[in-house]
Structure formats: structure tokens, C-alpha cells
From TrEMBL:
Species this protein is from: Desulfobulbus oralis
GO cellular component: cytosol
MGS-like domain ranges (all copies): 1-147
Name assigned to this protein: IMP cyclohydrolase
One of the GO BP terms on file: 'de novo' IMP biosynthetic process
Length: 205
């Protein structure tokens, strides 16, 4: 397996992220990030490439569309051992993203507030985060995906030792992702089930 070149870090829980990203940068890994996470990393003195600069396409729709772009998902999903995938990435300027560290909008915490409105709850349904996580977890043969800061030390230790993580580690982390995203979607579905459709505001054209 080739040495990791590039990491995408976009976190709601920023605990330890600057130290983790700093260690990645120290290994020569380029850092991609978005919004508040990019600000935290820059404040720590790290060089960060904004996703909008990486893709050449601006964040839009009040942040609803940030990472949903072929240069991001192609970079995560292409199989490194597939010559046709490599050719298509080369033809389309898609660079590899080897590490994805993402956690999700705090939906459960948001709807636990009795004052939470429907609009506020809906805006805390994460779209880009689960999509990134699922893409990276699907391609665990080539990509390391991290949803839990407790996994930072092992990932860093393996990267320092070999330049990449072990397949067993990537598989364990991928399983963690699917457990998280399934529970996240279940929480959204359960909350929506409690709503009375008759109480919803009128349809928006």
C-alpha cells in the first residue's frame, strides 16, 4: 500500500483535532478541511487547504453543499489497485484522499432541547458527513476513516511506522462507521415518527 498523501478533516467534536492534524502534517500529509475545523487548525499554525479551493467550487446553500463533489468522493472511492480507476482520476484531476476524519452534526443533542424547532432539527440532519464516512468505510481497503478521537493514537502510530495503516485497523474503523451512521439515521427516523403531520407548517414551493 502506498504512503498516505492527503487527509480530509471535518469535525463537530474538535477534541484533539489540532494535535492529530499537526501529527499528520508532520508526516508530510496534506490537510483538507472545511469551515470551523479549518479555523481551529489554522489557529494552531497548520497549513490547511479549504475544500472549496481543492474542488474549485464554492460552499453554497448555507453550508448544505460543501463536500458533495466528485473531486472529494472520487478521491476517496477510487480503488488504488484498479488501472481504469487510476486513469479516470488522472483524466479528471482527481487526487487521492487517504484519510477521512469526520464526525456528525449533533442531532440527538439538538432535538433533546424542548425549545428545538422543526427547522432547527432539520438543519442538524447531517448529509455530507455520513456520505463522506460511508464512502471512506466502503473503500476501507485503501482509505482510513476515523469517527472517534480515541482512535487517533493508533492511526498515528501505524502511519509513523509504515506510512499507512494496517488493513485490520481500516476494517475495524469501517465497521465503527456503519454502526454510527445506522444509529444516527435511526435517531432521526425515531424523532420524525413522533411528530404529528397535521402540526407541520405548510408545504414550501
Amino acid at each position: 500500500m502506498q504512503k498516505a498523501e492527503r487527509a480530509l478533516i471535518s469535525l463537530t467534536d474538535k477534541d484533539g483535532c489540532a494535535a492529530f492534524a499537526g501529527a499528520l502534517a508532520g508526516l508530510g500529509i496534506e490537510l483538507l478541511s472545511t469551515g470551523g475545523t479549518a479555523g481551529v487548525l489554522r489557529a494552531a499554525g497548520l497549513r490547511v487547504v479549504e475544500i472549496s479551493d481543492f474542488t474549485g467550487f464554492p460552499e453554497m446553500l448555507d453550508g448544505r453543499v460543501k463536500t458533495l463533489h466528485p473531486k472529494v468522493h472520487g478521491g476517496i472511492l477510487f480503488r488504488r489497485d484498479n488501472a481504469e480507476h487510476q486513469r479516470q482520476c488522472l483524466d479528471n484531476g482527481i487526487l487521492p484522499i487517504d484519510i477521512v476524519a469526520v464526525n456528525l452534526y449533533a442531532f440527538r443533542e439538538t432535538v433533546a432541547d424542548p425549545a428545538c424547532t422543526l427547522d432547527n432539527a432539520v438543519e442538524h440532519i447531517d448529509i455530507g458527513g455520513p456520505t463522506l464516512l460511508r464512502a471512506a468505510a466502503k473503500n476501507f481497503h485503501d482509505v482510513t476513516v476515523i469517527v472517534d478521537p480515541a482512535d487517533y493514537p493508533q492511526v498515528l502510530a501505524e502511519l509513523k511506522d509504515k506510512g499507512h495503516t494496517e488493513l485490520e485497523t481500516r476494517f475495524r474503523l469501517a465497521r465503527k462507521v456503519f454502526a454510527l451512521t445506522s444509529a444516527y439515521d435511526a435517531a432521526i427516523g425515531q424523532w420524525l415518527d413522533r411528530l404529528d403531520p397535521a402540526s407541520l407548517p405548510g408545504c414550501r414551493d
